[in-house]
Amino acid sequence: MALRTIRVVGDPVLTKKCREVKTLTPHLRQLIDDMFETMYHANGVGLAAPQVGILKRIVVIDVTGQDPIAMINPVIVEKDGSQTGEEGCLSLPGKSGVVTRPSHVIVECLNRDMEKVRIEGTELLARCMCHEIDHLDGHMYTEYVEGDLHDVQYEEEEQ
Ligand code: NI
Fold first, then answer.
1. Is residue 132 annotated as a catalytic residue, yes or no?
2. What is the average per-residue pLDDT within 119-125?
3. Who has the most CB within 10 Å: 48, 82, 145, 158?
4. How far is Cα 73 from Cα 53, in angstroms, rounded to an integer?
5. How far is the CA of 108 from the centre of ligand 1 (A)?
6. Distance from residue 22's CA to the centre of ligand 1 (Å)
7. For 9-34, how does the pLDDT look when each residue is reduced to its tens digit (9 = 90+)?
8. Centre of ligand 1 from the C-alpha of residue 146, in Å
9. How far apart are CA 142 and CA 99, in angstroms?
């Protein structure tokens, strides 16, 4: 596995629409492994392929640090409820803002075996799935932020 460079706002790759994955080649399997490693290294809970410069519909998420989920060609098929809270993005380091998202979503996607699966998410997982899937169509949370972006207060890493 290898760390990939996370693209930051201003990089045009973050505004592009990604292509569907037809075949999970060894290259793309490596990409998924690298995306997880890159996300964990950056202390993120989600990462989309365009954030590492690859215009493919692939997302990785792990909101607990113990539940890695890779989503290929994810589509939100149901959403309801609402949650309003802080959101940030590895492509806009040091910033966060308030965004309202559905509180419950169901996503259909392919897993790493290219099997069709449905993944249900509430709370942070629902927020994260919406955020990452937006990246696949070139959208950032900053488009929906309520009020101003603010600087993240980093917590001490001890304990
Ligand atoms: Ni993001």
1. yes
2. 98
3. 48
4. 17
5. 20
6. 24
7. 999 999 999 999 999 999 999 999 99
8. 16
9. 8
Reduced 3-state DSSP string for the chain: CCCCCCCCCCCHHHHCCCECCCCCCHHHHHHHHHHHHHHHHCCCCEEEHHHHCCCECEEEECCCCCCCEEEEEEEEEEEECCEEEEEECCCCCCEEEEEEECCEEEEEEECCCCCEEEEEEEHHHHHHHHHHHHHCCCCCHHHCCEEEEEECCCCCCCC
Task: Give the Å distance between the CA of 11 and the centre of ligand 1.
Answer: 13
Nearest to residue 85, comparing CAs of 150, 145, 154, 153?
Answer: 145
Tokens of 39: 């996300």
Q: What is the pTM of this model?
A: 0.94
What are phi and psi for residue 45, nearest 5 degrees?
A: -110, -5
Encode pLDDT of 57-102 as tens digits.
999 999 999 999 999 999 999 999 999 999 999 999 999 999 999 9
